[in-house]
Specification:
alpha+beta; single chain; 14 helices; Dna Ligase, domain 1; 5-stranded antiparallel sheet; D-amino Acid Aminotransferase, Chain A, domain 1
């Protein structure tokens, strides 16, 4: 039996653990650090994740057979490299392969070399040069922190003043620390956003259904960017033909280019995409399972998650391994008041069990912990309420019906997750 350690403590990790726990191959599951929900399917442990030797020592002492490294920062720190060097089987790309996420400037260089369709851009480490560039760039202009910024390092500037303020915030004021010292300034792509996942083993890529995240904190895509306020999958307006274009013109060329650079990609490739008049173009690449996309995908998955992850890690994926049901899945994120800015913790949560008891519903914890026998908030994104449905509308309705059972002080969530796809999907085929 497999003894699995999942690194991370958010909704993605709870969802992965939930899926992994269904495998007959799995015995014990551990989460580092986990959250209030993960403790119901495994054991939460406290490890110094910045000290890879501690992780390796604990894994060996506890006879861990497989480690899933989920968060981007630990991939960027080279945790997979350290575990591999210690002879511990693990899932996730190496530090060099995951550079396509932790350096947007590098990702753009790779895309140019591979001929992958993306927005035209320039990268800058000098503030004066970046400032001069935005004065001549057409508006609106997209400014991105090159490094990891928790999904919040992207600004669409509608005016020169907004663009200059963003540059000052990123490059001079340290709004995103070292991540914003280098910026990527690129053209604004016109179209409709969507994304997908591709499970890769360096040579083979298995495509997930198309999905749509909702990044802005408020309805109608207003307000600041967040880590994601909800998802739907699959997307009715993205055709199989489009997904084949994504595979052949984006995913496979990237894999070939990274192999050419001696950093074959083994792990989960997550391209954020824009459907433009010229076809799909890459907004950015992530090198790990999306959050909250994962919470929807695991509801649709029919394959054994552990079998998939291990095959990715050891290079043995084959085409018929990845299977999804024909239903739709929706995810609604319940967040703390004030998120993605400052927010309070420790708010008592009620109604989770009532929500989970509804047909087709599963609730994944993100920012929660158990305190004094009660579940309380412990983060910005608190709970991810997911539901299945025979139609997209059914799944959305079920997710909101379940969300209505849950309460905590200051709770906020979008009430329009999936509505754009419902309203415009048929016309966009």
């Amino acid at each position: 039996m497999e003894k699995v350690l999942i690194v991370g403590g958010g909704g993605r990790e709870h969802a992965l653990g939930w899926s992994i726990a269904k495998s007959p191959r799995v015995g014990d599951i551990f989460f580092a650090p986990g959250n209030g929900g993960t403790e119901t399917i495994g054991k939460n442990i406290a490890l110094n994740l910045k000290n890879h030797d501690d992780v390796i020592r604990w894994s060996k002492e506890n006879a861990i057979t497989f480690v899933v490294v989920a968060p981007d920062n630990h991939l960027a720190d080279g945790m997979v490299d350290s575990l591999n060097a210690a002879g511990i089987s693990c899932f996730g790309p190496t530090k060099k392969a995951s550079k396509i996420e932790w350096s947007k400037a590098y990702a753009k260089e790779v895309m140019r070399a591979a001929g992958i369709p993306t927005a035209h851009c320039e990268s800058f480490t000098d503030y004066s040069e970046a400032r001069a560039y935005v004065f001549v760039h057409p508006l609106p202009v997209v400014i991105k922190a090159s490094g990891l910024a928790l999904g919040k390092g992207v600004v669409i500037a509608e005016s020169r003043e907004d663009a200059l303020q963003t540059l000052r915030s990123f490059m001079l004021d340290g709004a995103h620390g070292e991540a914003g010292k280098e910026v990527v300034i690129e053209e604004f792509l016109v179209g409709r956003e969507f994304s997908t996942h591709a499970l890769c083993d360096g040579e083979t890529a298995l495509m997930f259904p198309p999905s749509q995240d909702h990044k802005r904190v408020f309805n109608n895509d207003e307000g600041p960017n967040t880590g994601g306020m909800g998802t739907i999958a699959p997307l009715p307006w993205v055709s199989e033909t489009t997904m084949e274009v994504v595979r052949t013109s984006i995913v496979e060329p990237l894999m070939k280019e990274l192999t050419k650079r001696r950093s074959p990609f083994r792990g989960l490739l997550y391209p954020g995409l824009m459907m433009t008049a010229e076809g799909p173009k890459v907004i950015e690449f992530n090198a790990r399972f999306g959050d909250p996309e994962t919470e929807s995908y695991v509801r649709l998955l029919k394959s054994d998650m552990v079998e998939l992850l291990k095959a990715s890690a050891d290079g043995s994926l084959h085409r018929d391994m990845l299977r999804f049901g024909d239903e739709y899945a929706s995810c609604v994120v319940l967040a703390s008041g004030g998120y993605p800015g400052e927010y309070e913790k420790g708010k008592i949560i009620s109604g989770i069990e009532e929500a989970k008891s509804l047909p087709g519903v599963a609730v994944f914890h993100a920012g929660t912990k158990r305190e004094g026998g009660q579940m309380v908030t412990d983060g910005g994104r608190v709970l991810h309420v997911t539901a299945l449905g025979a139609t997209l509308k059914d799944s959305i309705t079920a997710a909101y019906r379940a969300s209505a059972h849950i309460r905590f002080d200051g709770m906020q969530y979008r009430t329009d997750i999936g509505y754009d796809a419902l309203n415009r999907g048929a016309a966009s085929r």
